[in-house]
Amino acid sequence: MDLVREVLKGNQRAIARMISLVENEKEKAYPYLRKLYLSSNNSLVIGVTGAPGSGKSTLIDQMIKHFREKKKSVGIIAVDPTSPFTGGAILGDRIRMMRHSLDNGVFIRSMATRGHLGGLAKSTGEVITILEASGKDVIIIETVGVGQDEVEIVKFADLVLVILVPGAGDEIQTFKAGIMEIGDIFVINKADHPETPNFERQLQAILSLGLKEKESQIPVVKTVATTGDGVNILIEKILNFENGDLQSRIEQRRKRFIRWMLEDIMKEIIYNEIRKRISDEEFNEYVEKIYEKQFDPFSLSEELIKKLIK
Ligand SMILES: Nc1nc2c(ncn2[C@@H]2O[C@H](COP(=O)(O)OP(=O)(O)OP(=O)(O)O)[C@@H](O)[C@H]2O)c(=O)[nH]1
Ligand SMILES: [Mg+2]
């Protein structure tokens, strides 16, 4: 199978194979990624973040339905930051969105962060590239917004939805400042909860505090993901965002994403080149020597890189 051609055609199996290649043998994936990158169009990348159990997956499932009705194809990446402990959650996400799995215009993939620094699933950038190349109009990244690290992920999205639930008033007060800052649209999900009006007032008050003069109010949308109530309004806001005067912001974000990807790829290549020159045995010896304080890791890394450059 010509992997590149099939991915570009949107062949589901080819997309899955390409992603596995990226996850398991990144170096082998580079030749494909080069071609895919240049053939990819710009998808709208939406980050969805919020506390565990706030209804992200249920909401995304509803969003998929609406985008499909508008004939937009959708790719979903569910990033799981603490994979060994929430394996069940991944399964839950899959099941929740399963009804779309026979639809050729929907591709769903769960990814574990595998302890990568920054909490970012190690290959999220590449997976976005693959999904863009496959012609997906919209790409949705689901991530649990528990800490600063996880928040990093959605920074690479064009648009970030922060999902909150009513009755979490204390949570709002102590909410990681970062998560409040990155939200482009705030969603109060589980709006069937009686505390909703009260919670909305609190949220609006906090959001308006952070506003600079002349800045327009950040949109707040109420949804009940289990029934789909309010999701049409959310979709409208998202599409307004894309078509509105926020193009320059999206451009800035995309350049930031490229910058990050470039750094990540360069690190990966340098590390791989060094590892090609050192056996596992030798590597373990270095670890031992650093442990015994015969070496420090800083000088050793520098030395290895210098050797490589020569
Ligand atoms: N009452 C009510 N329940 C909801 C709503 N949305 C989601 N739920 C329920 O909340 C639970 C968690 O939903 P998920 O969609 O799995 O939440 P999540 O944020 O994806 O969870 P994690 O991925 O584990 O962080 C499920 O039992 C849903 O049925 C809602 O609007 N109202
Ligand atoms: Mg989920």
Topology of helices and strands:
Elements lengths: L2 H7 L2 H13 L1 H14 L4 E7 L5 H14 L4 E7 L6 H11 L8 E7 L11 H10 L4 E7 L3 H7 L4 E6 L4 H6 L2 H6 L2 E4 L7 H14 L10 E3 L8 H13 L3 H31 L2 H12 L5 H13 L1
Parallel strand pairs: 1-4, 1-5, 2-3, 2-4, 5-6, 6-7
Helix pairs in contact: 1-2, 1-3, 2-3, 2-6, 3-6, 4-11
Mean pLDDT: 83
How do the helices and strands follow one another from N- to C-terminus?
Answer: HHHEHEHEHEHEHHEHEHHHH
Strand content: 5-15%
| Cα distance spanning the termini | 40 Å
Characterize the main sheet: 7 strands, parallel
> What is bound: which ligands?
guanosine-5'-triphosphate, magnesium ion
- Helical segment tally? 14
Count of strand segments? 7
What percent of the residues sit in helical stretches (DSSP H or I)? 55-70%
Identify the strand order in the major beta sheet.
3-2-4-1-5-6-7
Determine the structural class based on helices, strands and strand pairing. alpha/beta
C-alpha geometry:
globular
Low-confidence stretches: 83-89
Instruction: Give me the oligomer status.
Output: single chain
Rg, nearest Å: 21 Å
What does this structure look like?
The protein has 14 helices and seven strands. The chain is an alpha/beta fold. The radius of gyration is 21 Å and the shape is globular. It has a seven-stranded parallel sheet with strand order 3-2-4-1-5-6-7, sandwiched between helices. The relative contact order is 0.12. The structure holds guanosine-5'-triphosphate and magnesium ion (MG). Residues 50, 52-58, 89, 92-93, 96, 144, 189-190, 192, 224-226 line the site of guanosine-5'-triphosphate. Residues 56-57, 89, 93, 142 line the site of magnesium ion.
